[in-house]
């Protein structure tokens, strides 16, 4: 009999591995994170590794995204090829700030890190892996997307993601307050959701129809992101935002 839930299980496992790709996940980790039974996880991991969707590290125990994932990603694009359009602006931001630059897009109730570029400064902050997902509401890069939506829409999303945000230490009050600050300021400037010593400044990229299509963030250690440096970083982000939005509407 055909397993109608098979694709959903595969997608769930791939998403978890993508979110933890830097360190990799053991089979037991995947079982714990997905709540799938051990036999199912073993079968899916084995099949994905055999087909190139996953690869194992030197210890042969931790799974990472495999070469086929990156091959498929290289030919995948949004309707307006967002990644290709944004790439030169991301590289320019890295050169200007020497910090990590990230671009994330909304996917349902999640935010997907579509691109991450690191600068040359010796201490770089890795808060989100490229390809990783976070619930909308966790972190400045997701909150600027919510803040750019109509109020009824973003409040509905926050309500649906309450439990997932709470798992990451964020209450509904905290998320709503952050979104309201962003709506007033026009950008996010705050500590990252995952690293106490890191700071992020984020803006939303808007389509010509007035909908958020992505977020653009600069992330670095707090001392390099705040004080006298913050206005210059924000200006660089806003310049990139303006030029990208012009390219999207061209």
UniProtKB/TrEMBL annotation:
Q: Name one GO biological process term.
A: negative regulation of DNA-templated transcription
- Name the UniProt key words of this record, in alphabetical order: DNA-binding, Transcription, Transcription regulation
Name the InterPro entries on file: GAF-like_dom_sf (IPR029016), HTH_MetabolicPath_Reg (IPR050707), Tscrpt_reg_IclR_C (IPR014757), Tscrpt_reg_IclR_N (IPR005471), WH-like_DNA-bd_sf (IPR036388), WH_DNA-bd_sf (IPR036390)
Keyword Flavoprotein listed: no
Q: Any idea which GO molecular function terms this record carries?
A: DNA binding; DNA-binding transcription factor activity
All copies of domain IclR-ED, residue ranges: 68-250
List each copy of the HTH iclR-type domain by range: 4-67
- Name-wise, this protein is IclR family transcriptional regulator
Q: Which organism is it from?
A: Bordetella ansorpii
**Gene name of this polypeptide:** srpS
């Amino acid at each position: 009999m055909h397993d109608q839930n098979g694709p959903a299980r595969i997608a769930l496992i791939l998403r978890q591995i993508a979110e933890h790709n830097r360190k990799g996940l053991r089979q037991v980790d995947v079982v714990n994170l997905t709540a799938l039974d051990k036999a199912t996880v073993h079968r899916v991991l084995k099949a994905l590794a055999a087909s190139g969707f996953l690869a194992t590290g030197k210890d042969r125990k931790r799974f990472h995204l495999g070469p086929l994932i990156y091959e498929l990603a290289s030919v995948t694009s949004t309707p307006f090829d967002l990644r290709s359009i944004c790439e030169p602006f991301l590289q320019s931001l890295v050169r200007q700030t020497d910090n990590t630059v990230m671009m994330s897009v909304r996917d349902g109730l999640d935010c997907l890190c579509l691109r991450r570029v690191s600068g040359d400064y010796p201490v770089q902050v890795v808060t989100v892996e490229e390809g990783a997902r976070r619930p909308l509401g966790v972190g400045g890069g997701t909150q600027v997307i919510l803040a750019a939506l109509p109020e009824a829409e973003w409040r509905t999303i926050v309500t649906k993601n309450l439990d997932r945000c709470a798992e990451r230490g964020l209450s509904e009050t905290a998320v709503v307050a952050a979104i309201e600050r962003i709506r007033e300021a026009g950008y996010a400037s705050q500590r990252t959701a995952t690293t106490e010593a890191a700071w992020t400044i984020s803006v939303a990229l808007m389509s010509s129809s007035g909908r958020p299509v992505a977020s653009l963030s600069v992330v670095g250690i707090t001392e390099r992101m705040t004080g006298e440096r913050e206005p210059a970083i924000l200006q660089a982000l806003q310049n990139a935002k303006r030029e990208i939005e012009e390219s999207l509407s061209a």
